[in-house]
Amino acid sequence: MPEKCWITNETRICGLPSHATDTFEHVPQPIVPIEKSVKLGLCNGFRLWVWDSPPSKEFLDSVFKEAEFIIMDYWIGNASTGDFKRHIVNSGKSEKEFHDHNIKIFKKAAEQYGDRFFWSITAEPDSQGINFPKEQFGSKKEAHKFFIEWMKGFSSGMDPNTKLRWYDYLKENRIDLKTNNIAIQLGKASMAHYAYELGVRLVWVECNCGLPEGLQKTVAFLRGAANQFKINNTYWGIDFSTWNDRTHLSLHYDENGKRKGGLTESLYLRELMYIYLAGANLLHEEISDASHWINKPKWYSKLSPMGKIASRFGKFTKTFNRGKPYRPVAVMLEHDHGQSGLDDADTNQTWFGTVPTKNADLMIKHFFDLAFPGHDEYYSAQAKQYCKNTWNCGREYSEKIASGEDMRVFEGGRLATSRWGDIIDVIIEDCPEDVLSEYKVLILLGELKINEKLLEKLKKFVKAGGTIVANITNYFNCPESLLENTVCHGTQGAMWTIPSVRPGKVSNQIEKFTGFKFTGEKTRGSVSYCPVTKKNLFENGFVFEKIQLQTASAIATTVNWLWGGWGAPNAPYEHTPIAVENKIGKGKVVTTLPYFMMHPVHRNPLQISECIYDQVISDILPYRIDGKPIQYIFNKTETEDMIALFNNGDKSWKGCIVSKNKPINTKFDWHKDAPAKWFKEKSIWKLEVRVPKFSFKIITIKK
To answer: Is the pTM of this model over 0.85?
Structure first.
């Protein structure tokens, strides 16, 4: 994947919203000073919105004299402004003829400037569901098929009378999505794999503006998708929208440089730095014409407080070698997973509320809740109600800013703490073997089923040294009733029960792979035991499958008599496996035996999951972070390791970076702290670090 990073600003978007008449005067807006923006370090590229006519070749050439990159929004079928439709009418051409003329310009630009020019064909078909069906689909496969057709025809601000579908139009005109540098903008990164499957090489996702999920989960899906399709020389990016959906105000300033609304500068900077270090190729600063400049008494008169921060950030990226993000863990999902953000939590549905969420789907949610605690907090019902009780409109929000109230406390959840660091990519089941080989740990989640073809791929991964973590339900087709009817009762006088046997069989090859024989016998437990921590964990109940160990060994157990009949306490005390590992070649296969790793009624995740994931992942982390939970990310170059700590809380953080080996030299980047001093404690080395509230530190360690 290319390591290039483009930072783009708006040329003109009318970032000062016309509907906010209590705050703005809506006046004609000139194009930003392109040469000045680049020299100030604000950006190295620009986004061109095509509200009416597309830019001429001469204009594109003039921009490229100063900038490295252009991404242009031109949506076929679009009627989001009257000017666009009126321009078609005034041209004397039909809608198709009008597009034909303009597409020639774009094709020539792609030929002339290569990957410096991309054309975004549609915007957020997954978050602007105009006419998206309300009825239920019969399966995820059916919902996926509908979504792909939806995406192929969707245009933001779609003209209901248009007969043009952008995908069909491009195909009919022999415009290849790869060679002509077509991009797709999404609102939910969980749909990114499907966009790349169409053939586009750049997928970018808008964040913050009322869109679900925190940035870390967004990165995991988007970066993983780009990597899975890297054979096409793919790119990925983030559109930082500074609109605060709870106030309907963008980040902007008055003539005195006082912030009037939108996200805080603190969150904006932390997001920019995190996404940059996470490896994004495109960082677009939406509405930068309003957020980076003070536009009174005249447009672009001087930089705003955010503009000064953006200028420093842009200059920093020119000299700082970010290397590559360390991402040794991949989560593999079934192809038609349909994880669509908060729709799953709010309506108990996948695929935008059209397919009921299953037990297997909840495993995905539980994993990311563990990996990034609080990642969906910003859009939780409790958080929204809290803000609603605090201010009722944009004017009240602006008044709170003016009063000096710290508005950063209302932004929790956009960036969350990370249990193992931000080291996760999400891939889907048809991932190529060469991409799989880049990861050290592969976690199978959701309704993914291991068929013969996938099994062969997984065998190669494990033999080469990889670790796989799977739930027993990934090995057979299981009904939703799997957690029910745990036992078949005998007569009351006999006082005994007959274990229930689940349907479904597995092959001998699967049993050899897992290292145990599947019995199909369902049983129950209430306490799990972690040998590493030597603690009993009270789970309140779970259903698991008894197995017969062959080459595998237990790594977590339960006490087998706790769910027995009246005479159970007199039964022998022994531990029954609920998680096992089987070593194959240089790697191993870890299988968890409780169905879906959750309580059978309340669907809460089991505590033993933390122990199992910790055992697998902790060993592959280059450094340990001691202290209260914090967000962190690792980056590597040939000669240096980098650790970035992001404190998104309202209290200062104090902790230690722990290394097995003595570092040669260490320095702080961005924030110029005192020289870093490591100290030895027993056989390990520690570096004490303090991170102020709502801030971050970048520590560079020479190998």
So the answer is: yes
